Amino acid sequence: MMSKKTLHPSIQKFKQFVKKHPKLVTEVREQRKNWQELYEDWYLLGEEDDVWNQYKSDSDRKEEEKKDKSDFMSTILSAVKGMDYTQVQQHISSFGEAITSIQQIMSQFRGSDNQVNNQAPQQNQPFFFNKD
Predict the structure, then answer these.
(1) What is the largest CA-CA distance in the chain?
(2) 3-state SS of the chain?
(3) Full domain range(s) for residue 108
(4) Is 108 domain-assigned?
(5) Rounded to two decimals, what is the model's pTM?
(6) Composition bias, kind Low complexity: at what positions (predicted)?
(7) How many whole angstroms separate alpha carbon 65 and alpha carbon 128?
(8) How many structural domains comprise the chain?
(9) Alpha-carbon span 74 to 21, nearest angstrom
């Protein structure tokens, strides 16, 4: 009688991982990868690495995208709920004042550039002759 060997716990976890990522089987069958490479990558990178997303079934991938979108929206909503609108208004006002100051400085530089540009053609002559 042959007794059934029990697999190492990490190999059992890897088998469960492969069940969640059925496209890995296709990779091996089409000889693009072998099980040893996949196991080593899984062991080193872990299950949560982005490299595994391409091997998930399409329905699992869509569910994960929906979950990510809902997590993002809940984060945004919680941030909006926690805002102090008077502080936001003050920051926007000070930001507007900073932009106005920058615009004034830029216009001053443009004014001085125009003055230099107007004088430059008179000083730069294409042919310069010294008188003896």
Answers:
(1) 119
(2) CCCCCCCCHHHHHHHHHHHHCCHHHHHHHCCCCCHHHHHHHHHHHCCCCHHHHHHCCHHHHHHHHHHHHHHHHHHHHHHHHCCCHHHHHHHHHHHHHHHHHHHHHHHHHHHHHHHHHHHHHHHCCCCCCCCC
(3) 85-115
(4) yes
(5) 0.40
(6) 114-132
(7) 71
(8) 1
(9) 28
